[in-house]
Amino acid sequence: MQLIKLPVLAPAADPLFAPLRFRNLTVKNRLLRSSISGRIDNYDGSGTRARINFEASFARGGVGAIISSHVPVHIRGRILPNYATIDRDERIGFWRAVVDRVHAHDCKFILQLSHAGRQQDIAGVENLGQTALSATSKREGFHGIACEAMTRAQIHEVVEQFAAGARRAREAGCDGLELHAANGYLFTQFLSSAINDRRDEYGGPLANRARFLLEVIAAIRRECGRDFHLQVKYSAIEHNHTPLFWQRRGNTLADGVALARMLEAAGVDALHISVGAMFPHPQNPGGGFPLDVATQSYGAMLHSGAHGLRNYLGFRFLRPLFAWLWRRGGAAGVEGQNLAAARAVRQAVAIPVLVTGGFQTASRIRQALTAGDCDAVTIARPLLANRDLPQIFAAGKDRPDAPCSFCNRCLIRVLDSPLGCYDESRFHGDHAAMMRELMAISEDEVTAPAPPALRAHNG
Questions:
Q1: Count of CB atoms situated within 10 Å of the CB of 200
Q2: Mean pLDDT calculated for residue range 269-276
Q3: Catalytic: 43?
Q4: So what's the pLDDT on residue 426?
Q5: What are the residues whose beta carbons fall under 8 Å from the beta carbon of 372, sequence distance 6 or more?
Q6: Most buried among 48, 137, 261, 382, by the most CB within 10 A?
Q7: Which phi and psi (to 5°) does residue 282 adopt?
């Protein structure tokens, strides 16, 4: 089926709420929930009621589609414990229950398949004693996480793990897939000119560095067919030298545009634009780096890499220096900071382009859509602060009364605390009110019977 791009809509129609038509999927509006979640599942990778309630809360708020948090295709590739996986057929029933709850609110659910590679924040007990897989044997730069360059056999094994995860996602009723090839995870480690130091067919020029990702795309198409929505999230620009200024810059926007053309030729249905060669990064997510919270929470990562103690001491005793290094690599503003990169990619391809970047102002999003910068925006932190953001826009307001401050306390807290907004100023200093909101996903509909698929999965 030939993809036809939607024309710019007449002023009488609000572009925020125009349907977005992909090759194999239609989403009711141009506001998508980007990948975000916390450690709310079981340690072994099985899902919980809290996860179902979490995703349903955004669907109820009016987004057109939800892109799940990073879902590991194998335990060795998980970024953090307590995230639901899709590494075995027994997980299908749980994800079907998630999809059913999201669909009840006329919202689509796109599962994000992931593999941490060397960016493995907390490996988990199953991974103690074995190094992380990567494109390289060089330690990860920020935390100093040890890794080993994957052999060809290991690459092929992980390709099949992605294909199997994709098949399970389709059997669970998901509306599509996203491959997480951005922000420093395994695909980035292959794609990056700053990280990938291989001398075989998976290293060197961009066409070789993209080979692993393209093989995964081909394997998913073989397993799931060409009629199943498949999009790729990737960093159009890496800025690998921020905040670690002594490192190489990594992929440029020219590389990002060239990769976009490769992915379109490989048959993906959409591109999701981000930036940064690690996570977190001064430009992803933009905003503050709460060093007081980092001092409290980073202890969970002290043993993850060789630089853990260095970082902890820097957060605690060298705050002005670290804050300066972080700020110098940040963008001028947060909202819409990736639009220039998205525009360059969109001009190079015919498939829809999504972009993330702190969106929470209706007029700013409308401007981006009507100017042709992107086809839709994806939102994480502002939706965490205001899950009903689409309804706020639909009611005619340009911005929420209590917008996200981009303080990023939610980001740092996720290592060891429930995910949610930790900016007490948004709750007028009422700590109890903040905690009630944080815990709501564990209390929502707890007395209701579990969906049939979930009951069957849990025996």
A1: 12
A2: 95
A3: no
A4: 92
A5: 8, 343, 346
A6: 382
A7: -55, -25
Mean confidence (pLDDT) of the chain:
88
Strand boundaries in 264-357, DSSP class E: 270-275, 353-356
**Which homologous superfamily is 15-457 in?**
Aldolase class I (3.20.20.70)
Question: Please, where are the H alpha helices in 299-430?
Answer: 308-317, 319-328, 339-346, 362-370, 381-385, 389-394, 409-413
How wide is the angle at C-alpha 239 spanned by C-alphas 238 and 244, nearest 5°? 130
Range in 43-52, 58-67, 329-338 with the lowest mean pLDDT: 329-338
Average pLDDT over residues 209-226: 98
Question: Is the pTM higher than 0.85?
Answer: yes
* Omega of the bond leading into 382 within 30 degrees of 0 (cis): no
Three-class secondary structure of residue 13 per DSSP = coil
Catalytic residue among 43, 83, 185, 312: 185
∠348-63-228 over CA atoms, to 5°? Answer: 55
Distances in whole angstroms, Cα of residue 272 to Cα of each of 175, 231, 426, 447: 16, 7, 30, 38
